From TrEMBL:
Its main location: cytoplasm. It is found in: Cytoplasm. Belongs to the MrnC RNase family. Involved in correct processing of both the 5' and 3' ends of 23S rRNA precursor. Processes 30S rRNA precursor transcript even in absence of ribonuclease 3 (Rnc); Rnc processes 30S rRNA into smaller rRNA precursors. This is Mini-ribonuclease 3. It comes from Staphylococcus equorum. GO terms for molecular function: ribonuclease III activity; rRNA binding. The lineage of its organism: Bacteria, Bacillati, Bacillota, Bacilli, Bacillales. Residues 10-109 form the RNase III domain. The active site is at D16. Its EC number is 3.1.26.-. Pfam families: Ribonuclease_3. GO terms for biological process: rRNA processing. GO terms for cellular component: cytoplasm. The keyword rRNA processing applies.
Amino acid sequence: MDNKLLNPLTLAYMGDAVLDQHVREYIVLKLKAKPNRLHQEAKRYVSAKSQAETLEFLMENNWFTESEQDIVRRGRNAKSYTKAKNTDIQTYRKSSGLEAVIGFLYLEKEHERLTSLLECIVKNVDER
């Protein structure tokens, strides 16, 4: 199956889970804290606002390949029938674009590129 043909919101659904798992592992090993503290810290990385800011940073620095940019664009432009929680629609769409490319890289088993992206996301948030 060609994963590029999947619905971009399906890719974003997958990407959300992959990013969440990566962030959870990172903060558990970093903080060794109780679950409530871990949850508060995780929100810094996985909130729509944080993801949108990270996407803007990556786009400004030409991080994505041309085909990855297409996935981001499709994810950003996808019509979601769910309401964005605690954010505006533009921020929500940007975060969906980032999640879509994460999901795509995961499904394509592009582990090296995916790991590089996830590490860049964490580093970007840590430096803010």
